[in-house]
Amino acid sequence: MADESNEKDTSPGFMNPVAGFGVTFKAMFKKRLTEQYPEQQKTTAPRFHGRHQLNRHPDGLEKCVGCELCAWACPADAIYVEGADNTEEERYSPGERYGRVYQINYARCILCGLCIEACPTRALTMTNEFELADSSRANLIYTKEQLLAGLEDTMVDSPHAIYPGMDEQDYYRGLVTEAAPGTERQVAVSKGEKPAEGAGAAEAEEVEA
Ligand code: SF4
Ligand code: SF4
């Protein structure tokens, strides 16, 4: 009985290794795709989904209202939010509520962007920063302090009073473009901060005089 496999193989056997190297030779003359990371950083696409950022209004108050919609939208359960009420003595956002605790767990996050779509105030957006790797799980939980946007020249750090004569709607209408002259950061008593020593005594002296 004839061997069918031998009948179909018409090429000389010694050519097989050379044919195999054909793929290698073709690849040798192609443009190299090796990226010299991290020595050479590649520019990401403008709408790249990187690390999140909690944004501020132009006067430095926070845009987050602690509504938790981002946390509910997250398919990976990576966001934890606790809202709280603002007071006139300690105001973090122009309206009634603010995000007292805000955490994103980057061990869970898949950078899908559903949370930023859900945010009603554009408080939450994503940056182009992608270097999030870490050897500790605890370090991958980013806190509100880490996620909060930095201060620009027109801003005063929260907590501080709302712009005089403006309300929450005016902030979203873009009528507040900078911190009001003389705006000072309030004492964050809820975070354990205490009024500066001597402040109370100085006020008492002024009253007596
Ligand atoms: S980007 Fe996606 S996975 Fe990451 S926190 Fe937002 S919704 Fe969750
Ligand atoms: S980031 Fe946006 S969606 Fe999330 S709690 Fe704050 S305001 Fe709500």
What do you see in this structure?
- [4Fe-4S] cluster 1 binds at residues 64, 67, 70, 119.
- Residues 54-84, 100-129 form the 4Fe-4S ferredoxin-type domain.
- GO terms for molecular function: 4 iron, 4 sulfur cluster binding; iron ion binding; NADH dehydrogenase (quinone) (non-electrogenic) activity; quinone binding.
- It contains 7 helices and 5 strands, in the order H-H-E-H-E-E-H-E-E-H-H-H.
- It has helices at 4-8, 16-28, 69-73, 114-118, 144-147, 168-172, 199-208, and strands spanning 52-54, 79-85, 97-105, 124-126, 141-142.
- It is an alpha+beta fold and 209 residues long.
- Mean pLDDT is 89; it is low at 1-5 and 201-209.
- It has a domain at 52-186: Alpha-Beta Plaits, CATH 3.30.70.3270.
- The radius of gyration is 29 Å and the shape is elongated.
- Helices cover 22% and strands 11% of the residues.
Q: What is the string of SSEs from the N terminus onward? A: HHEHEEHEEHHH
CATH architectural type of the domain at 52-186: 2-Layer Sandwich
Q: Got a strand count? A: 5
| Helix count, DSSP H or I runs of 4 or more residues | 7
Cofactors and ligands present? iron/sulfur cluster
Residue-averaged pLDDT, rounded? Answer: 89
- The residue ranges in which pLDDT falls below 50 over 5 or more consecutive positions are 1-5, 201-209
Strand arrangement, largest sheet? Answer: 2-3-5
How far is the first residue's CA from the last residue's CA?
A: 122 Å
CATH topology of the domain at 52-186: Alpha-Beta Plaits
Q: Give the oligomeric state of the chains in this entry, treating copies of one chain as homo and distinct chains as hetero.
A: single chain
Which range does the strand content fall in? 5-15%
Q: The biggest beta sheet, please?
A: 3 strands, antiparallel
The outline comes out as elongated
Give me the Rg, rounded.
29 Å
